[in-house]
Amino acid sequence: MTHPANLLPPQTWKTSWKILFRFFFIYFIIQCIPLDLKYFSTLFHIQWGELSFRDIFYLARYTPKFLPSDSPFGGFADWGIIAFIALTGTLIWSFLDKQRKEYNQLYYWLRVIVRYRLAIGVIAYGLLKLFPQQLPYPSISQLNTQYGDLSDWKIFAMSTGVVPSMETFLGLVETTAGLLLFSRRTATIGAGIIITFTGNVFMSNLAYEGGEYVYSFYLVILALFLLAYDAVRIVTLLTLEQPTAPNTVRPYLARPWHRSARIVLKTLFIFFFVGLYGYKTYASYKQNGYQYPTAPGLDNAAGIYNVTEFRINNQELPYSLTDTVRWKDVVFEKWATLSIRSNRYVHPDLANTEEIYAKDAERNYELAGAVSRHYYSYGIDESRQVLFLQNKNKYHQQEKLELHYTRPDSNRIILSGINEKQDSVYVVLNKINKKYPLIEGRRKPLKL
To answer: Domain with 407 in it: what CATH number?
Structure first.
């Protein structure tokens, strides 16, 4: 039986332990502490008087980047560069520091840095789910897009978004795990939860072609590093059912003001990345989130409309399954987005990472990962009854339409004007009183 005293931190480390520690110390310091000039540029350009949760989110999501984001060698290749730097630093450190017997205190503070870095990383995403915004409820356009016209990641996002309560639960788990990391007594529990939860996120990104697989695995690696410290004691106690020793390493704080400064810094850190961020995230949730535009659309127009008549240059085009010019249906969202389904080519916007855009024109969640529909943001001149449409897809930004609208009754809209090719168009839209089983059957018996 292993005596508990043998599991206490040794006063003299083996040479191999010291070499490994030096490597991981340099490696995780580079991974966790911002050293990138772009990070500080972002920090100094924040409008602190108008601080938003978006600003805090990007501060919390920092990872060092040595290669361009769009580089095929980015992501994991950055880790290789960091590992090379750490290896070089280890060789120099080992040559210069041959007398040191142990690194217990330095190991303690490294774990503190990793704990706090991991905590804000998972909480930044957790609060976006706790107040369900990251994966919002599908829009009318998305509900009327064929399954085969959606990317794998879009299907995953929509499948989660239709159950806000589940998204909230996922956010609660993620946020709780992050909060547990702020105390060294509960850090191991938090790390274990994160390995399970974020490991699943990593696998989901791989399975559904998401874009966060590198970052999610980065968080898993940090959690594994934290769990490794207690792994031997956990196995000894729970698996081998033998006595084990407690963690006796405490930070060395020489002066009383060091302790006070530690408490103040910890309080400010948690207030900024949890309290303030949580408050501003909740405020965004109450204002309908950040994925969809906020500008209101045409009054009482939200819904899907069948195109019953379509003319171009005064020539009527009958309904066709193959015509690339004629529109099939049109959707007016509650916000100022209009989508047109047709056979005209749509260059897919495959954005699959979490981005928070402040401007409506930049918010591309509704069209990302989908084809068969062209999405337009629009402005309204109510006095002239004119809609000014701008294609939201970054690959079709040159497309602009100017359409006059009339509303003979509440279920019909007539559009006339010029399209993206400067051809005259005349379109009659009849609203479809469509019932969505997903909505009609929620919390009550469904009748078709």
So the answer is: 2.40.128
